[in-house]
Please model this.
Amino acid sequence: MTKRILVIDNEEYIQEITKICLETVAGWQVITAGSGQEGIQRAEVESPDAILLDVMMPDMDGLTTFQNLQANPKTQSIPVLLLTAKTQASDRRRYTELGIKDAIAKPFEPLQLAEEISIALGWKS
Amino acid sequence: MQILLEWGDLRLEPNRGEVTCGNQSVALTPEETSLLMLFLQHSQQILSGGMIAIALSLEDAMLDVAAVRTHLQQLQQKLQSVKSDGKVIETVYGVGYRLKPLDEKPLQNRHAQIQAGVLAVWQRHKERIRNQVGAIAQAVEAAAQNRLSSDLRTSAIAHAHTLAGSLGSFGKPNGSAIARQIESLLQDHSTLTSTEIAMLKDWIQKLHQEIEQNTPLLNAPEQEQESNPSGLLKKTIEVNVLVVTTDSTLLSLLHTLLSPWGLRLSSASEAQSVWQTLETVAPKLLILDLEQTQLDGLTLCQSIRDHAHWNRLPIIALTTQLDAIAINHIFAAGIHDYVRKPIIEAELVTRIIYQLERYLSSHLGSQAYPSELQRIKNELERRVAERTAELVKVNQQLHAELDEHRLTQSALRASQERLSGIVEIADDAIISIDRNYTMTLFNSGAEKIFGYSASEAIGQPLDLLIPDRFAQVHRRHVSEFGHAAQATQRMDSRREIWGRRKNGEEFPAEASIAKLNAEGEIIYTVYLRDITERKQIERMKDEFVSMVSHELRTPLTSIHGSLGMLASGLLKADSDQGKRLLHIAVESTDRLVRLINDILDIERIESGRVKMEKATCDLADLIDEAIELMLPLAEKAGITLSISNVSIPVPCDRDRIIQTLTNLLSNAIKFSPRDRTVWVNVEVQTDHVLIAVKDQGRGIPADKISSIFERFQQVDSSDSRNHDGTGLGLAICQSIVQQHNGEIWVESDVGVGSTFYFTLPLPPTEIPLSCAQRNSVLTRSPNVESIAERKPLVLICNNAASIQLTLENLLERQGYRVLTVSGQQAAAAAETHHPDVILLVGDQAWETMASLKQKATTSKIPMIVCRVSPPHSDDVESSITQADEMIDEVAVFELLRQALAPVSNQMEVLIVEDDAELAEMLKILFEQHGISTIRASTGREAIRLSQQMNPDLLVLDLLLPGGDGFTVVEWLQQHSQLCHTPLVVYSVKELNRLERDRLTLGPTEFLTKGRVTIQEFEQRVMALVQRITQTTKPQ
Model:
């Protein structure tokens, strides 16, 4: 089933790579945003199936963006996965406490990214 | 009349000062002669050092006692060398000096005379003595009949007593001794046994015999002793001592003191009785109380000294006098010795025994009573020694105890002071509490940490210092510890400890607790450290690690993703997407490399592991170099660089300041729109120089200004991907400037632009006057002018004006700068402009060249002669034509290239020197000889540059960072092109033969820094240069 994924990352190259990966490997549709603010707007408009969210972003960091998405009725139901360098056990515990489904470590395996997302979100048993 | 002073065989003739001993003359100094004369004139007296000094001193030359002693010693030595019988002058210990009494021989005559006199008196007294003996005999007879009355006994004792004295005086010591035995026996025993009576009768018999024996009256006593070798007699020998005093207390004290030593006291209090007693008792010593008498003691002494018989009688004075003059008077009166009152037993007895011993040994013969006196003396010495030892021991014990006590006290005090000092100066809090949890000690560390004064805290419960929510837990903790076995415990091992300051602020702490059981009461001492700062640093470190981790993972994610996709084969590398992925991978790799470099850089600078290598640099050079590096970027971005430069020496790390400048410049260029200008301005202020880099970029929002120099802080989220930054550039700049004790800041208006400022401190009084002149604004279009400056300058000496333009255009098109002058101007222009090559064109080209070759300043400039037109032609037009025809462009350029080639290859020296200032000096030195230099500051750099430039000469320091000079040489030796490089080893290291062998390349000079002056260096290196050029470029 084709999914629509919103990638929010201030790094242009990472947006591009993620897009190429998911499109090529899983045939999903990928939309991108370069900041938390832009991401929230796009999420409102596009209602993607899931959001891949970078944590370390300069203007609005990933966790604030997530809280804003949760606070927004239009976006609060969209599952969010973090794409981050910070995936230690303590970090993961904090993420799940906040209601984040899972965190995928950077650098990710390009061929397995789609699969990881599917498993984390329960799209694939 | 000639007066001779004599003492034995020693003679002194006072007028001439001649001294003879027997037949030998003795050479004495005037001082020694005077000294000897003094002793001879006062042959009976003891002279103290002070007295001698006064007597010998002249009006203008006061002798001191030490000088007297020296003269005395010398006199003694000289006299001893000629006198076989030893010393002439003897030391009276503690008193002074005197002539050593003469022995037997000189006395014999006097003995005879005395004997005759004594015999006459004896005859007169004989009857009286017989009667006295008879009276004693009567008493003994009465005792035998058991009817001895006390009167009779007393009278007998008195007679025996008188007999003992007078018989002694008349040279009958045995008789005297017997009389003394009789006296003693009668005194000690009021009733007499028959044996004692028999003994007495025997003694009386012997007395009679003694009396009836006429001769010898004053014979050698030992003969008599030998004739009467009774042990009893020997043992009971007593010595009479006459005490002249009215003080009965003193008398009885003396009696008590002296009788145990066998000294028998007689006393007298006025002159007449003194003379009588002298006669009757014949004392061997006179003790004269100078204060408690009815006579003038000193006059008496002098009378005794003048008396023929008693003149040698030892006299010891007892006096309360203390002053030197009085004491001098005492000795001047002929008193041998004195004892100060109150009397010290040991002193008195010692002096008496000493005087007696001397007197008896010298006047009664050396063998007189030797054993008895020796015994007395030994006994005395033993007792004194015993008592002294006892006293010394007790004294030592007392001292030791006292010392120990003092030591213990001072150690205790020192220990207390040290401990309280430690407690006071400790930055950490040291707090004691009693079992009631009340604070009893609160040190200054605690005051600083908690904000309470000691007086505020002491007496309060410890809860005061603990956040309420922890108070209960803490009390329990302390109580548990009170019951625990161990004496100390860390309190933060299980949980974090928090303290509460007076202002309510809570802070993380690290604490230990110790308990001390002091006289049944437990005292707890808490040792606490505020770790707020440490926690902060830890947090910052965590944040940095997290940042670095993110920053590194970002390009890594791109690289891994791109290459992973390509490697999977799902995307072809030559497809559009594949190409894009490759591009991303390459770019990200670059970014990763930059990032790693910057991270390492900032870490090294901030940790201080990279030291700023400060040397005096011309700031203008640094700015020029930074501009040079940034030109390509500026050109690409369409930015003009405008520099207002100042030549000023600034102590700094050259490379690091260039790095700072390029970082600021690259930021300014990157954030400026096209066709704008970036300015670099320098302002010299009193103690620092201010450098400003100004742009017309978008500016920095106010809320970012404060964090702009922090790591990974960028104004916009898109900055990192748009501008190739690592987010560390400004942080690095800040670190570098701070390491130079400078400041860095930014002023910015959004939409208008930003100006980054930094300062570098100037050393005091080093603002050269010339900098004001050079501080002219020089706006230039760097992408044109700065490059132009480095184009080779061709000086054309042209007498054929017609082809000037053609030539100039031709050369300028090829990137040369051109200056055209006439043949006459050639020399002056060459001297002024230092062209890289001179092109001689037209008529008299050879002549011009010859004149240029003759001048030292121009002779070395490469010259090309260009034949333009036949010399006979005077047609301008045709000459142009001909010139055009003549000048083969390719040939001219090739000639120019060849001529210029040696310029760039011309003698290039690689200076390997880590000291920037020294390198600069060497550079100037070589430049003065027209030799260009390149500097390497490390061994590694030296190797790299050697490879690149193939230097004509290597000036090598040995102690270098990054591979020493030996390593450099060893590396060069491995390379065929470099192994013959001429070498100047210029190092502080003293080299041995082996090391010199290791360091040889081509022609090699070894110069030791500090040993050779810079002039010597120049001389020797230039000589080497000449050798090199002669061998490599034969003329």
Summary: The longest helix of chain B spans residues 370-425. Residues 218-237, 766-789, 869-886 of chain B have pLDDT under 50 and may be disordered. Chain B has 37 helices and 33 strands.
